[in-house]
Amino acid sequence: MKILLGIDIGTSGTKVILVSEDGRVLASKVCDYPLYTPKEGWAEQIPEDWWQASVKGVKAVMEKAQVSADDICGVSFSGQMHGLVAMDETGKVLRPSILWCDQRTTEECKETVEAAGGVDELLKMTNNNMITGYTGSKLLWMRKHEPELFAQMTVFQCPKDYIRYRLTGKLCTEVSDASGTGLFNVRERKWSWEIIDKLGLPRAIFPPVFESSDVVGSITKEAAEITGLKEGMPVVAGGGDAVIQTTGMGLVRPGLLGVVLGTSGVVAMGLDKYQDNPGGRLQVFCNNAPDLWHAMGVTLAAGGSYRWYRDVFCNDESEKAKATGEDVYNLMTAEAAKAPVGSDKLIFLPYMIGERCPHHDSNARGVFFGMTLQHTKAHINRAVMEGITYSLRQVNDLICDMDKDIKTDTIIASGGGAKSALWRQIIADIFGCPVITQSGSGDGGAYAAALVAGVGVGLYKDIHEACKNLKEETRTEPNPESQRIYAKTYELFKALYPALKPVFEKAAEI
C-alpha cells in the first residue's frame, strides 16, 4: 500500500497526516506554537517554530501508523497564505514572519493602487485588489520601515514554502500562494512584472512559480536525518491553505460551495474558467490544477471570534471540559442550542480584527446589536455563531454575482466549526441549501495536501480522480421555518456595517 504525507502549516499549529492511496487517514498529529502580537493589529510567528512542529509531527505520525520511510511515496503542503518569510543569501530568516491577519499595511495598499493607476488598472494586472493581508503590501512595509533588513533580503517565501525549502533546499512557490501576494497575474499564471516594476521592487526576490502538483524537489540527506523521511523522496509544491483546503473538499465545479470554519472563515468555489473580479471585492486565485481557478472571500475572524467568546465568556465550560474530558465546544454549542433561531434579534458583527471580505476595512470592529434585558448567555453564544454565518453568506452572494450562471446548490463544510451539528444547521438555514461533510474534512489542508502529493507522484491521474476518495459523511437539509426567520435577520445584519462604517472611522482616529 502506498502512503502519502500531508503537512499543513496553520496559524495555531501544524498538522501532519498520513493518508493511504484509497484516501484513509492512517495517523495525524497537531503541534502547536505561539502567535505574537507586538503591537495592536500586528501578527507574527517564528518560522523555526513551524519547522520544529513539522519535524515533530512527521516523526509522531510515522510512529503512530507504524510505517517506515520506504512506505511513503510523496509529500506535499498546505499553509497559511500571505505570510512573509524574508530570507538572505545564506537561507537565514531575517525577521519574524508577518502573517495573513496582520493589519499594519494599510498605507502600503494605498500606495500599490496609486502606483497601478487605480483599482481598475490594478485588477487588469492581477485580478485582485491589494489588501492588508497580502504579501506584496508586507514587502513594501518592510522596505519602508526596515530598510536595512530589506536590503539583505535575496528572496521571500510563504510559510509552507519555507518548510519545503527546509526539506529540499529549493526556493520556490506555486500558483495559489503566488496569487495571494497581490502581485501575480492570475489569468496568465505568472508574476505580474508590470506592477512589480511600477512599485520598484527587485525582481530577484520573487521565487520561481510552479503548478501545485509539480514535483519541485526531493528530501535532502540532512532533512532525512532530522525527520526520518527517505532521502530522495519526491516533494510536491502544494498550495495555500485557503485554496488547497477547498480543492481537497472536491470544489472543482461552479455551484458547489465550500465553507471552511477555521480561525478565519473561507467561502470558496472552484471555477472551470477564468473570471474577472469586479471591484476586487473577492479573491480570484489560481487553483491547484492547471485548468482551474478559485473564487473566494475570507472573513478574518470566523472561528477566531468563537474562540474569543470561549476565552472571555466560557470559563465554566472550559473547567468542566478539563475535568470530564469533554470537548469545550460541544458544551458551548449545547448551550447555544437553548436560544431560539435568530437569537431574538441579537446580532453579532464578527469584525474582531478588522475585515477583509465582504468589507475590506481594517477599521471595522466587532459589535453586538440589539441586546436587551431578556437576552441570556445562550443568546449571546448563538448570536456569535449566527453573525459569523451571516458574514459568510455575504461572501457567497458576491461569488454568485460574478456570473449569472453561478448558483450555489450544495455546501461542503469543513474546519473545526463544521464538527458542530448545530452550526451545520445554522449554515443550511441561512444559506438555504444542503450542507454536507466529507471524509478528510476534519484534516483540512493537510488531507488536501496529501491528495495533491498523490497527483504529483502519479498515484492519481489528476485532482478530479484524487477527489473521488472523498465520501459523504453527514448531510443537513435547511429548515423552511428557520429560513424564514433568518431571511429577516440577515437583512438587519447587512444593514449594520454601512450604518456603522463612519463610526468605525471615527474610532480609528482616537
How would you characterize this protein structure?
By secondary structure, this protein is α+β, with helices and mostly antiparallel strands. It folds into 2 domains: 3-249, ATPase, nucleotide binding domain (Nucleotidyltransferase, domain 5, 2-Layer Sandwich); 303-405 and 479-509, 2-Layer Sandwich (Nucleotidyltransferase, domain 5). 40% of the residues lie in helices and 20% in strands. The protein contains 18 helices and 24 strands. The strands form 8 sheets. The chain has a 7-stranded mixed beta sheet with strand order 18-19-17-16-22-23-24, sandwiched between helices. The protein has a 5-stranded mixed beta sheet with strand order 3-2-1-5-15, with helices on both faces. A hairpin with a 4-residue loop joins β2 (13-20) and β3. The model has no long low-confidence stretch (mean pLDDT 95).
Task: Describe, in short, the structure shown.
This protein is α+β, with helices and mostly antiparallel strands.
* Distance between the ends: 62 Å
Mean pLDDT: 95
- Please work out how many helical segments DSSP would assign: 18
Q: What share of residues is helical?
A: 25-40%
Shape descriptor reads: globular
**By CATH's scheme, which homologous superfamily of the largest domain applies?**
ATPase, nucleotide binding domain
Q: Which fold does the CATH topology of the largest domain refer to? A: Nucleotidyltransferase, domain 5
Kindly provide the radius of gyration, computed on alpha-carbon positions and rounded to a whole number of angstroms.
Answer: 22 Å
Query: What does the oligomeric state look like here?
Result: single chain
Sequence stretches where pLDDT stays below 50 over 5 or more residues: none
Q: Note the beta-strand portion.
A: 15-25%
> Helix/strand-derived class?
alpha+beta
What is the count of structural domains?
2
CATH architecture group name of the largest domain = 2-Layer Sandwich
Under the CATH scheme, which class of the largest domain?
Answer: Alpha Beta
User: What spatial order of strands do you see in the largest sheet?
Assistant: 18-19-17-16-22-23-24
